[in-house]
Amino acid sequence: MTAATHVAPPEVVAPLAVPLHPARAFFRQRLGLVGAAMLGFAFFVAIAAPLLAPYDPYASVRPTILDIYQPPSAEHLLGTDDGGKDVLSSLMYGARVSLLVGFTAAFIALLIGASVGLVAGYVAGRVGGALMRVTDFFLVIPDLALMIVIVAIVGPSLTNIILVIGVLGWTSTARLVRSQTLSVKERKFVFRARAVGASGLHIMRRHILPLVLPLMLANTVLVISVAVLEESTLAFIGLGDPTVISWGQMLNFAFTRGAVSAGAWWALLPPGLAIVWVVLGTTLVGTALEEALNPRLRRHHLEAEPRLHLLEELRGGEPLPEPPSLAPQPAEGSPPVLRVSGLTISYDSAGGPLRAVDNVSFDLHRGETLGLVGESGCGKTTTALALLRLLPPGGTIERGQVVLDGVDILALPQNELRAVRWTRMSIVFQGAMNALNPVKTVASQVAEAIRLHEPEVGRRGADDRARQLLERVGISARRANHHPHTYSGGMRQRAMIALALACRPDVIIADEPTTALDVMIQAQILELLADLGREFGMGTIIVTHDLGVIAQVCDRVAVMYGGSLVEEAGVQQLFADPQHPYTRLLLSSVPDVGHPDRRLRAIPGTPPRLEQMPAGCQFAPRCPLVFERCWTERPPAYNLDRRRAACFLVEPQARATDG
Q1: What is the pLDDT of residues 40-50, one digit of tens each?
Q2: Burial class of residue 300 (count of CB atoms within 10 Å of its CB; 0-12, 13-18, 19+)
Q3: Counting C-beta atoms within 10 Å of the first and last residue's C-beta, which end of the chain has fewer, N or C?
Q4: Would you say domain 338-424+505-570 falls under CATH 3.30.310.10?
């Protein structure tokens, strides 16, 4: 008989509304539709001006005194101007120039500002600093004054006006985009994209830009309105293109040619209202677009109508199948898939480097699950991130080796490192909601990793594999194209596991994979990790502070304290006979169902701060068995019978084992 492999059950959910496409979401915004209608009307008038206008404002006329500033009448619905020309016709033709200047200049400003802001925010360092110094230089110069000087020098043509307004109007956009980019690039899904092996350009284009785009669209409102107003200002002071009619030119003629003294309000009010009309329309459209393009701004699925209310059903009452008691053991003498030797990590501080991880070493074999356990602040996550060289800014690997199938990851250049990430070693980040891009569907994020490393698969092949992986971890295909915020916590964690499996790695690192999940979901996630490790023959490292997690799925345990590995043993060895005092106290602080009368013990004190690390054993200030040698000398890792412990108390036992 062959042992049956347990397959994770798919999520069972109630009927659910399909997430709205951004276009459909926009059409549900009433105010956005009003704004679009206002802009659409303005564009229609501008395009159809030759057909709609009762007169040609560019035609030569010989007005009489009776034709000047005629009030509105049946012949001239909005009256006439100082030249006896029809104001309504001039307003229609003026829409062409004002809209052309406003939108074209805004596009130029957004293109320059967004490029500068994205690069300055993501690259930072000298390049980012230089770009922002250029931005600051342009910011301190009054835009209007500089525009007046430049237009007066180069000439008041329509092309020159558009270029001057666009080139000088990008600074505010650059600063806004940069500030948003600085925030977005620190989010965990960008960190995850780097871990997948994406280049900086790919991350900016596929992950940061979609999140910054709503801000850019909202800023378009201000840029368009400012561009229209600046064109009006230039025309008002006589620097508008004299060969064309714009709303600004109409205001200029009205003010300078006696419309106010003549009481000809019809020469002033229509172009002013037209400018307000366009600005208001762009404001409404920009707000609606921001909400439509950013899924997290839409109404949450729990706020939907009752008939669409999401009730995610667990497998009610059905017991989980018992996992196999033992994972496949590595063949005797087989080389480990991952060997970590002497890994030492420090962080920069004002007082000098602070050592966070000190001389950590361990092996991991294929099909084996290693638990990395310890209190918060003991260096577990730092160690895990260092394996893929994903330390946060300020973190430095001082020395050590991380050898993956004979290749030292710490010695690889960046281009080769990107090829190793996710194809050979991947990571399930802590906090799945933050590690998934909120504006991209879950399936597209899984497929992205496949296309990055296996472009020959193609878009369709990557999408098909992404759906297969999601189904393998228990997410039905109909939920694949949903956004992360529509998933429950357990489903998001399953999605992260599918993402980690995308390129069939040899090693998976799971950083606190069951954080904030209830007990039933924790059991399912842990069982899934164990099954996948056996199924794909991967080595798995689980970072946790939960000894229950360790007992359930791990084959070996590495206990960390104060940045050092203080004990390493098989699960049964460790739980039955812990050697290090810290490990004993950890186990005594966990309830034992087999001994309900046993009194739980809390570990006195707190883990040491990096700047206050003891000179000797890190655990000495909290150890109940401490003696004088512990304060001055740091214990080495003594090799015992198929285990290790860094404590002077086991030194005699280690000598007996060696003998």
Answers
A1: 999 899 999 88
A2: exposed
A3: N
A4: no
